Each structure stands twice: as structure tokens, then as C-alpha cells.
Amino acid sequence: MLIFSIVLMAIKFAAYLLTHSNAILTDAFESIINVVAGGFALFSIYYSTLPKDENHPYGHGKVEYLSVGLEGGLIVLAGGAIILKSVMGFFHPSEIHSIDIGLYFSLFAGGCNYVMGKYLIRQGKVHQSSLMVADGKHLISDTVSSIGLVVGLVIIYFTKIYWLDNLIAMLFGGFIFYTGFKLLKESVTNLLDEADYEKLDLVVSILNNHREEKWIDMHNLRVLKYGAHLHIDAHITLPWYDNLELSHNEVSKVEYLIKDKLEGEVEFFIHADPCLPASCPICPIHDCKVRKHDFIKRLDWTLENLLPDKKHIL
Q1: Burial bucket for residue 79 (CB in 10 Å: 0-12, 13-18, 19+)
Q2: What is the per-residue burial (b if ≥16 Cβ within 10 Å, else e) of 96-127?
Q3: Among candidates 179, 228, 225, 183, which has minimal Cα distance to 70?
Q4: Which of 128, 136, 138, 290 is spaced 20 to 30 A from 111 at the CA atom?
Q5: Quick one: average pLDDT of 8-17?
Q6: Could you give the CA distance from residue 77 to residue 32 in angstroms, rounded to a whole number?
Q7: Are 2-191 and 197-306 the same fold in CATH?
């Protein structure tokens, strides 16, 4: 990734030196960010794979979100600088030449970005790496920029309206700024442990599809992400008359189920609650000899009733 970014940066700056196009310079500026982000990404991927220790009991995975935030911040700065330079270009225009060569360079760079971007997104999903997915999306956005850039350069080439170069650069500067802002926002939300409803939905679906009779109820479900690692908390209601060993077996079943169905490393902390008389109407245990109330119906588990820290009653 780092070597790839350095090569593309050299190609784009060569295209700028040949053409003096501000639109091409926007692409070249973003390549600098790719190089800096690529270097930090290498360190982050290495650091995130380090095992847990006394100072980092949940591992080192969150460094990936820091890396994504750094990349997003740099992209925001680059987008702002590009917009500023484009505005200045209207007042101090520069001569543009060799547009055809700039077209070839931009097409080549855009194609390379697309191939590498798709590869990083695919590998990021396989390895549960937010950093690789973010880098892949960034390269795909570079591809979109390159396509728009090529279209703009073609228009300039045939119309000879050279002030369009600054307008195109300004538009892509705004697009780059927006891309960086989204990455920055994603980094902050992950560092603040904002709920990942897609992952929560998956956990709820797994629990519903493999639910056992003694799992009377569940609540206070939480999913925290640490890079490729997941930390899941939950409270489960079990029969009060089971001994500790039997209750532990049920808790282990839930833990092994989630670990088996979810990709990546999963740490599951389950708090076992004894059932109460109020649990009887939703308790499906058919041979319970201490039931205080008739069974009415099994409660379907959803995000709305699993997330609150509150036992369920009818």
C-alpha cells in the first residue's frame, strides 16, 4: 500500500509539472496524504495485532480508529488547501499545456486506485479491519475524482476555456473535504464507542435463531469494537433452581455460539440473573415444577428490548 501510494504520487506530480493544471494538482495533493496515511497504517496494523497486556486489557485494536482519524484530518486539510488555491487561480491564472499527457496519467492513476481500493475493502472485511476498509474507500473516492478530472480535462482540451480548470479543482477540493470529514466522523464515533447497529442486529439474529429453552430472557446487550476484536456484554435470565455448574453451562453455550458465528476474536461477558415469578409468563420451559404463573408467550428478542438494562415482563 505504501509503495503503491509513493509511485502514484510521483506519477501525479509529474503530470502536474507537465501541465500546470490546478485540477491535476488536487489529485497530486491527495496522494501526499495517501503516502503519510499509508506509513501510519502500516504501524497501526502491526500495533493492533499485539496481544493484550496489563496496560491494554482489551487489546490494541483502537489504534486503527486513530489512524483513520489522522487520515481523515489530513484529507480535510488538503481539501481546504485545494479550494483556497483554486480560488486564487481565478485571480492569478497560470498557463496550462500538454493536457493530453495529463489525461493519460490521470486515467492510469484512477485505474490503479480503483483496483487497489477494491482489494483493500475486500481484505478489510475479511480481517475485520476498519483501517483497511477506510483506506479502500478513500482510494475508490480517488477513482471517482480521477474520472471527473478526466472529463473536465477533455472539456478544457476541446473548448480551450482554461478557467474551468480552477472550477474543476474547486469542486474536487470540496469532494475531497467531504470524504475526509466522513472518515474523521467515523473515527470519532468508533473511539467514543457509538453503537454499531449492524453488528448488534447480527448478534440478535444469531441469538434468536439458536435460542434454547432455558434462555428465558436477555437484556442489557452491548457490543464494543476494538479493531478486529469484539467485546460483548449481556445479562441472561436462567432458571433460579439450577446449580452454578448448570448455569455456567448455559452461559458457555451462548458464548461459544456467538464466537462460532461471528468473524474475528470475540470476548463475551455474560451476567446470569435468576428468574423471578414475573418471568413465568415468558418462560418456555414446559416441565417447570415451580412455575408461579401460566406461560403466555415467548418474547421475541429485538434491538428495542435487548438493549435496555431492564428485565422483560408482559
Answers
A1: buried
A2: beebeebbebbeebbebbbebbeebbeebeeb
A3: 183
A4: 128
A5: 78
A6: 12
A7: no
CA distance 279 to 299: 11
Reference 169, options 12, 26, 10, 59; nearest CA is: 26
Classified by CATH at the fold level, domain 197-306 comes out as Alpha-Beta Plaits (3.30.70)
**Grid coordinates representing 156?**
478544457
Q: Has domain 2-191 been given CATH number 1.20.1510.10?
A: yes
Domain residue limits, the chain:
2-191, 197-306
DSSP strands (E only) in 201-277? 217-226, 229-238, 266-274
**Residue 299 amino acid letter:** L
Residue (of 306, 314, 207, 203) closest to 263 by Cα position = 203
The bridge status of strand 229-238 relative to strand 217-226 is antiparallel
In this structure, the dihedral spanned by the alpha carbons of residues 212, 217, 222 and 223, taken in order and rounded to 10 degrees, is: 10
pLDDT digits (tens, 9 = 90+) for 279-307: 999 999 988 989 999 999 988 899 888 99
Indicate the burial class of 95 (C-beta count within 10 angstroms; 0-12, 13-18, 19 or more). exposed
Burial class (CB in 10 A: 0-12, 13-18, 19+), 76: buried
